[in-house]
Amino acid sequence: MGMNQYSEQLQELTHIRNMMEKSTKFISLNGITGIAIGLIALLAAAIVFFISSTTPFQTEDIYYNYLGAFNGNEQKASLSLYVIAGITLVLAIAVGLYFTAKKAKKNNVKLWSKTFRLMLLNIAIPLATGGVFCLILIRADLSQMVSGSMLIFYGLALINGSKYTLQDVNSLGIVEIVLGLITLWINKYGIEMWVLGFGVFHIIYGAKIYINQQKENE
Question: What is the average pLDDT score of the chain?
């Protein structure tokens, strides 16, 4: 077999593999999405830190500083945190869908495909379960466990959905679970670990995916 024939067969196999991957995985996730979601999380955290800085006393736990800013009214402080978290989630989803749709259009790939729906379903189930679990924790007056639990269930959601998309999503999911377990173990610095998981690591993995995508396009 000549080198030219071997090279042609190799290219054909590569093409077939890429076609199979496109049919079974949603590969239009944009690295910019991860970066944008991370920046949104950091912005939300900056708001919390700013409010915390207005309290007359400072402790090593941001949440108690935040509580002090509301004159010790834990119910009011918790409600404001949930509002900030809710707005952050809505913005993150909107930004994620925007950049994903933009990348899918650029790749000439249908966004609402069977693979995309399967990916969303596999992500949504752990997220919904985690949301209900966190509500149960709040009802049981165990709010200090919410941050760690959110990270764990988010990580499980990423791992569950990663089989339909990029492998980097699986790695990010593992990192989120580890952070969540650490947060529950030490039982403090929940907000700081939330910032690390949803903010910093999202930016790191988003940048990694973006760089890899740029290399593939060269």
Answer: 80
